[in-house]
Amino acid sequence: MKIAVLVSGGGTNLQAIIDSINSGAITNTEIAVVISNNKNAYALERAKNAGIEALCISPKDYDTREQFNEAFLDKLNSYNVDLVVLAGFLVVIPKTMIQQYKNKIINIHPSLIPSFCGTGFYGLKVHEAALERGVKVTGATVHYVDEGTDTGPIILQKAVEIPEGITAKELQQKVMEEAEWKILPQAINMIANK
Ligand code: GAR
């Protein structure tokens, strides 16, 4: 199967996918393209270092959101992928793209959905909210993307215990290491081999 990985930042989840393909933990899968909305995303370097086509389509280069959405979708369509993986992609996916890629877009979210998800819950904010609430267990979720925010069918989840006194940054790292970098490659492999 051919996949596109959409990124906005550091790209550690992208790296986990690349490493899993190289180690054989993910089979039947080729990354056709990595697309970022942010030209400074380190994820683009990771893709280039792995010899994968990497490009940036930034909303800043378009007059309107509609024009950006259309350009983005056109570019994505040109790669004919079977699955779109949102790996820390922080742009709201337009309705037209969700309809066109029904059950073909998956996302990694850094909490156990339905906790700490939905509008405004992304990146470090998710972990700050978990610490604020005082939950003792958090984790990560891989789910299909539907028209809501973090509401699509859940594919995999993994729990992570929250130690006393941990900072949000430390918790973010722990959730990535113990959950995200495992279940995102695992979900891709499941879909590629079903
Ligand atoms: C990850 O923790 C991912 O779960 C989160 O952004 C981070 C990206 O890190 N995604 C969301 O919050 C989506 N709502 P990465 O660029 O190193 O993979």
Structural features, described:
It is a single chain. The protein is of the alpha/beta class and about 190 residues long. Helix content is about 40%, strand content about 20%. It has helices at about 10-25, 40-50, 65-75, 95-100, 125-135, 170-190; strands at about 1-5, 30-35, 55, 85, 105-110, 135-145, 155-160. Strands 3-2-1-4-5-6-7 form a seven-stranded mixed sheet, covered by helices on one side. The radius of gyration is 16 Å and the shape is globular. The model has no long low-confidence stretch (mean pLDDT about 100). The structure holds glycinamide ribonucleotide (GAR). Glycinamide ribonucleotide binds near residues 87, 109, 110, 122 and 180.
